[in-house]
Each structure stands twice: as C-alpha cells, then as structure tokens.
Amino acid sequence: MAKTIAERTDEELAREARAGSRRSFDELARRYKRRLFVYLRPRLGSDEDAEDLVQETFLKLYRNIAGYDPAFKFSTWLYTSANRLAIDSFRKRSAEKGHPAAERDLDIPDPAAGVGEGPAASGLWEEARTLGGDRYRVLWLRYGEDLSVEEIAAVLGRTRLAVRVLLHRARTSLAGRLGPDMKRTPRTAAAGQAARD
Predict the structure, then answer these.
(1) Using an 8 Å Cβ cutoff, are 27 and 6 in contact?
(2) How far apart are CA 131 and CA 35, in angstroms?
(3) For the chain, which has fewer Cβ within 10 Å, the N-terminal or C-terminal residue?
(4) CA atoms of 12 and 196, how far apart (whole Å)
(5) Cβ contact 38:115 at 8 Å
(6) 145 CB contacts (<8 Å, ≥6 apart)?
(7) Domain spans in the chain, listed from the N-terminal domain onward
(8) Taking the domain 1-108, which CATH number applies?
(9) Residue 56 and residue 81: Cα distance in Å, rounded?
(10) Average pLDDT per block of 10 residues along the chain, 197 residues long
C-alpha cells in the first residue's frame, strides 16, 4: 500500500519534487512555512520581512530543486538556503542604511514570541529568543528542527567544534535564565514542564 503524501518523509517528498511533483513540493512548503518563519523572525525585525524571506526561500528552492542531493536531509538544505538569504538581506539593509554588515550575533527582539507547541514550549522558546543571535539559532536548529551538529555547522557555516561550543553556551545561558528546576535541554525541559501542567 502506497503512503499518502502526508505520510512521506521530507526526503521522499524532496525526491518527488525533484522528479517534477509540484504537490510534493507544496507539502514540504506547508510543513516548513511556520517553522522557517519562527527561525527567521528574530533576525529580520518584522513579521513582514520574515514572511517575505520565507517565500523567497521556497521560491529559490523550487527553482533549484534539481540541485537537491537526497544524501542529505531536506531541512539542512532548506535552513542553509534561508540562512544565506537572511545574511544577504541583512547586508543589503545595512548597505542601504550606510552601516557595515555584521552577519553574526544579530540580536533583534521578537515581539511575536510565544510561537510553539503548547504553553511550556512557547515559554521556553520565548526565553531562548532573548539569547539572541547564533545562540537562539543553534538551539532552534538542534532542538526545534532536530538537526545534528554536523548539519547545523553546514547551515551556519561554522566548524563542528564551534557549533558544539555555541550549543553548550546557549544551553548554559538558557538554563541560567530558567532557574535550577529547568537545567535540562530545551526538549526535555519542555517535556518536563508539559508533564507538570
């Protein structure tokens, strides 16, 4: 019995999209639209800019779907493309304002914080957003998207060691902000909080 489109993995859908299935690509866009928005929003300063970049990312991927390598996770390819577009967007805005572009450690507050799955997760991610810059991004990619350290390194253009250090610092900072009851990873902290609710 064949899997329905909703039962297929991201990689299966990406392979089908690469073979010409618009429906499979639309399913990938549906799955990742909100998650990509949550990832990009703190970097861009407004909901509208984040929505525009989400659309631009999917348009770029659709045009370049033939370049998708099925040996890699679709989410790694997606977030790498989105990250590059966000850096380009920041550089362009900085050039227009006459400021040098500083592509690392952008710390733009997110007034739309609280997006997530349930109250515990949204509170956790709201606090994670206050870490700013790459600390939030590395936590989101690791625990929000379940990417490996190697995949995060590819997305952020950093070494695996740099990602491990950044991830450790982000977790330590987040644990310090959450207090002694929450000194666990974002995923386990959210699960523990949900169990208590």
Answers:
(1) yes
(2) 18
(3) N
(4) 37
(5) yes
(6) 35, 39, 75, 79
(7) 1-108, 113-197
(8) 1.10.1740.10
(9) 10
(10) 87 94 95 92 84 94 92 91 86 65 36 41 72 83 86 87 88 78 49 43
Query: Going along the chain, which residue ranges are E strands?
Result: none
Q: Is 2 left (phi over 0), alpha (psi -120 to 50) or beta?
A: beta
Residue closest to 167 by CA, chosen among 190, 151, 182, 191? 151
d(CA 169, CA 173): 6
| Triad 118, 52, 103: Cα angle to 5° | 90
Q: Which residue has the tokens 């349930």?
A: 118
d(CA 107, CA 117): 23
The structure's pTM equals 0.61
Q: What is the DSSP letter of 70?
A: T
Closest CA to 10 of 104, 76, 81, 85: 76
